[in-house]
Design a protein that fits this description.
The protein is built from 7 helices and 8 strands. By secondary structure, the chain is α+β, with helices and mostly antiparallel strands. Helix 1 runs antiparallel to helix 2 and helix 6 packs across helix 7.
C-alpha cells in the first residue's frame, strides 16, 4: 500500500515536473516570440520607409506579417506543450471549412484589401468619400480594415470588402477642382452688373485659376430670385478656404453695387366680385 502510494506520488511528481517545464518553456516562447515579432515588424517597417515603399502597401504588409508571425508563434507554443503537429494539422483542416464559412465576411475583407492595393482607387494620405457618406483622410490600409480619420478628427475602421465593392470618391486625385456657388439677386437688379461684380471679386483672389477662366451663368428664374452660378477653378488644397472667402466677399460687395439678396416672398392678389 505504501509502495503504491509512493509510486503514485513519484509518478505525479514526474508528470508535474515534465509539464511544468513545458509550461515554463511555452510562456517563455510566448513572451520572447511576440517580442521578436514586434521587433521584426518594426524593422521591416523601417526598411520600407527607408526605401520609400508606398504607404498603402507598407501598412498592409505590416498587418499581414504581424498576424502570420503571431500564428506561427502560437503553433510553436502548442508543439512545445506536447500537441502533435499531425493533430494540429488535422484540427486546422477540419476547422478550416467551418471557419471559412463563419468568417466569409472577414475573408472578403482580406480579398478587398488586396484589390485596393492592386487597383489603387485610393492611397494612404488621400481624402475620400465612401458610398455611405463617410469622408476623411486615409491613414492605414490594413489586412482587414482601412483606417480613416474624418475631417472632425474621428477615427473610423472601414471593412475592406465593402470599400472595394462600393463607390469611392477620391477627393485628392483631381489636382484642380471646380466650384459652383449659387447666388440669388432680386428681380429688377442689373444682371450684367452682378456678373461684372462677381468676376471682379474672383479676379482679385489669387487662389482662383485663370485657366479655365471663371464664368457667371444665369441659372434660373425662380419664384423670388434671379439665380446666378458663380463658377471658378482652384487647386484642391484651396477649395474650402477660397469658397468661404468668396462667399463672404460677395455678401459684402453686392449690396454696395445696389444688388440685393431677395427673401422668399409671395404676392397675393385679391379679386373683388
Amino acid at each position: 500500500m505504501n509502495m503504491s502510494l509512493d509510486s503514485l506520488i513519484t509518478t505525479l511528481g514526474q508528470i508535474v515536473a515534465t509539464f511544468g517545464t513545458k509550461l515554463i518553456a511555452a510562456v517563455a516562447i510566448w513572451v520572447i516570440g511576440f517580442w521578436i515579432v514586434k521587433k521584426v515588424v518594426a524593422s521591416i517597417s523601417f526598411t520600407m520607409r527607408q526605401h520609400e515603399v508606398e504607404p498603402s502597401l507598407a501598412s498592409f504588409t505590416q498587418s499581414f506579417l504581424s498576424i502570420t508571425l503571431k500564428v506561427l508563434v502560437v503553433i510553436i507554443i502548442l508543439t512545445t506543450l506536447g500537441v502533435q503537429m499531425t493533430s494540429i494539422v488535422a484540427v486546422l483542416g477540419a476547422a478550416s471549412l467551418a471557419i471559412g464559412m463563419a468568417l466569409s465576411g472577414t475573408l472578403q475583407n482580406v480579398a478587398g484589401g488586396m484589390i485596393i492595393l492592386f487597383f489603387k482607387p485610393f492611397r494612404v494620405g488621400e481624402a475620400i468619400v465612401t458610398a455611405d457618406g463617410k469622408a476623411g483622410i486615409v491613414k492605414k490600409i490594413m489586412i482587414f480594415t482601412t483606417e480613416l480619420h474624418t475631417f472632425d478628427n474621428q477615427i473610423l475602421f472601414l471593412p475592406n470588402g465593402a470599400l472595394s465593392n462600393g463607390i469611392i470618391t477620391n477627393l485628392s486625385q483631381g489636382k484642380n477642382r471646380r466650384t459652383d456657388l449659387t447666388v440669388g439677386i432680386s428681380y429688377g437688379d442689373d444682371v450684367e452688373k452682378a456678373r461684372a461684380t462677381a468676376l471682379k471679386i474672383l479676379s482679385k483672389d489669387k487662389r482662383v485659376l485663370k485657366n479655365p477662366a471663371p464664368e457667371i451663368i444665369l441659372s434660373s428664374l425662380d419664384d423670388s430670385a434671379v439665380t446666378l452660378i458663380v463658377r471658378y477653378w482652384t487647386k484642391y488644397e484651396d477649395l474650402l478656404s477660397a469658397q468661404a472667402d468668396i462667399l463672404e466677399t460677395i455678401y459684402k460687395e453686392f449690396p454696395k453695387n445696389k444688388l440685393h439678396f431677395p427673401f422668399p416672398q409671395m404676392d397675393v392678389h385679391m379679386k373683388k366680385n
